[in-house]
Every structure is written in C-alpha cells, then in structure tokens.
Write the structure tokens for this entry.
Amino acid sequence: MFGRSGSSQLALIVKPVIEQIAESLIKAGYKGLISDDRTDVQSAAQGWNFRVFHSAEHNWIQFNLSMTNEAKYNTDDVNKFNWEYRCAKVYLNGDSSGVFMNLDLLYLPDRDITEILAEYISSWNMLMGRFIESLREVNSRYVAEQEALKREPPKPRIVADQGEATL
C-alpha cells in the first residue's frame, strides 16, 4: 500500500508558497515570520526590517523595504539608483516623505520555488546594501548642504518681468 509509487506521489506535494518564502529566508539566516493573514513574511537584514509579500491569485512575490525619507532622497536619486540597478525599483510616495524599494518575482504555481528564492534572497541582500549606501550618500550630501546654508544663507532674489535679479 505504501510502496515506491505512493512515496513518489507524496514527493509531488508542494508546500504553500508563503511557507517556502519563510523557510527560504530562515535557511539563508534571516527571520521569517508569516503574518496572521498569510499574505506576507516579515524579516530583517543589515539592520532594516523588510517584508516579502505574496499573491497566490497573481503568482507573484514582492520583496519590499519601506522607510521615512529622512535622508531627503529625491527623484534624481531615485532615477540614478533605478538606472544602476534595473532589477529593483525605488520610488517615493506622493509627498516624498517615504522611500521604498521593491524586487518582484513571478513564479509558476504548484512548483517548489525554494531554489529561485535562494537566488532572489541573495540578490535582495545585495540590493539592500547598495540602497543603504545610496541613502547614506544622499544623507551626507543633505547634511553638507544644510551646513553650507548655516554659514552663508541664500541671497534674496526678486523676480521681474524680464527675468530674475539678485538684490
């Protein structure tokens, strides 16, 4: 009854994707806490919390890092990062108070995706490192600009019909 054919059929049973995500994160050395509604896994790397969202309906996984924009990241910084690292997407919310980075993965349903998840987790870790470096560079630039403004405030400008003039 439980011969070889029965055991091979059991091997075809694939764990739910959300569990594969959590187990893959844990195997890679990260925490992998599945949310109560089983739509995302919370984790952390390099001192930053992130989430891995899952949509069974659309067969996608999204790694997501979000934070307040204290470093004053702007659209030029976003465009530069997105140009240099095309596989990820960095963006600002509408009022630029938040900055986000995503990495998306589409997968085939009813398959074990732990191997490709291991590759994506490795890529995500590298991208997080590059993004954090970028945030630090932008923050350093912002601090230097603020210090320069303290030493020499901007001169008042007047706008005339024929263009701008300095007082």
